[in-house]
């Protein structure tokens, strides 16, 4: 930090006065009027008229003559200097005021904010730390100054420093205001510190303060991200009780949180409330409701809702809605519906992900449609999408249950070595009576350095030849359990 800020001691006020006496450029003028009140009013008027140089000349002339401008005039002069980018001069005035014990919380707020804007948050924090280290100065630092510091760090999204100011505030016996907690809650939520936001909001309520709309909107976001749907719902109701209108984003957040908790009825009640408030449901709203139905295993109802909203005039469908409804198709085994939706996605130029193809292949698996699943898989590869382990496992299972042995083996050959995939193939072969092929795959699996799971080992042991103990021991050695 600049040493002009770091060492704000009383010696600077005397050096400032010395500079005033010796410099012809300081604009010292002869004062015909010697009344401090009258001169202070002149400084105040010139400062308000945004004439900092004229106001400064009177201030210096008064100081040179041993006169003291009043607090109001000094603060107004500081504000005018800072508005015009004259920070260095303002700091000298501030030091002089501080030495004369002519400062208030407003003075500190002005100078701290200016230092932060011109020289960064760290410089402002260093100055603040120096101020509160002095007992005499600390007693003059009111809640407005703390709020200024919190707002400085809020602007920079520095939640850690905002939390630090909050802690210092509490330790020094200060009580936060509505502004304090609004700044804290909104900053913490914006920076993803939801637990801190909830702590600040809870303290605010314990202190008997009534939160404003911005604070309540922010805390709804914090509660929903932490899965506390009941608390979010209570805040939403509190807003309504206080005749505050929740915005669409808050309603969507509550709907989504309730849906994740399987509270379908409440989700739709908030949706109706959202409409009554004049908010039009968007893609996020619909996806939240569809997810709510899926989580409650009400897949058919999700499909019915999807058919209702797919009208182009009602909502623009996005990839999230399509993937959600593909999940419904997967659970119900509606392979034909899933394939139809997949083609619609491609035709609409909506980006189709690997997850989308997985849901369609999963629907084919549930419906025991191995050939369709393979067609979707080949389509996926042609579209330059790389299958993941979920794709391959689903494809492996559907091929085995569809007696497509060659295709199952081909999948293993074309895939990177994976123990889970081999375990699924071996277990499926055993269960469908392809014992020899299962043993062959087991040997291949061990040769590739992959580990069988407990179920695979048990199946191998159960299917060893039952001739003699010697043969059993020989086979155990052969298959390298």
TrEMBL record:
The keyword Repeat applies. Pfam families: PPR, PPR_2, PPR_3. The keyword Repeat applies. PPR repeats lie at residues 70-104, 177-211, 212-246, 247-281, 282-316, 318-352, 353-387, 418-452. Keywords: Repeat. Belongs to the PPR family. P subfamily. This is Pentatricopeptide repeat-containing protein At3g29290 isoform X2. It comes from Nicotiana tabacum. The lineage of its organism: Eukaryota, Viridiplantae, Streptophyta, Embryophyta, Tracheophyta. The gene is LOC107817066.
